[in-house]
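From the pipeline queue, job 12 of 40. The input is one protein chain; the requested action is below.

Action: predict structure.
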Amino acid sequence: MWKESEQLQMAEENRRILEFAKQQQTRESDRMALRKEEEQRKDQVRNQLASRLAQQNEDAAELQQIRDELAWEEEEERNRLRELAEQEKRIRTRLELQEVERQQLHIKAAKQQAEREEDEKFRQEMLAKFASDDKIEQMNAQKRRMKQLEHRRAVEALIEDRRKQFEAEKANEIREIEEENERQRIRQKIIEEERQKLLQEHATKLLGFMPKGVFRDGQDLSLFDEEFRTNFEPKQVDYFDERNW
């Protein structure tokens, strides 16, 4: 009887041990399942973060590429506009020179015509004076012809002397004009060198606050580096434009 009771007790104890082991195994399985689920969730979050970071990097690279392309296009547009302005300036200068040359030719032709008329008037006046002084109307035909020929030679010599004197005076006048122009050129060169020197000394400090017109053309900008030229052009201000107030 005691032996049977002991066997029942051992069987019950074994059952409880097996039940406990089964519960422990179930809890361990549940724990492992939860841990696996947690790891999967963490992996999913990491993958999402990595994908988002990769997308952000891709978006940043694309944005930088767009900015670089826009900067390049803006620079190309500035170069194109600068080239157009220089081309228009060259055409305008050529047309102005052609007009000046045309006017000079017209003035020269008119002046030559006036000189010929003046020479002819002087010729007739002097021939008349010589004829009167020598009283050629009282000479016979042969002497009159000889004297008239002498008068014409004398008058032509006078006209030639007047022309040489006029040309000498004109050459002297041209020389004086050229000397004055040279003095003006040297003076303007000195002024321009001082202006460019002031630009180089102060323009960088005043970048973004200079009114239009301080820089005359692309030659002024060429005194500075690429960084200054790039920053200057979009920032130049026209203080006489109400939109900038």
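Job complete. The helical segments are 2-134, 141-202, 218-221, 226-235.
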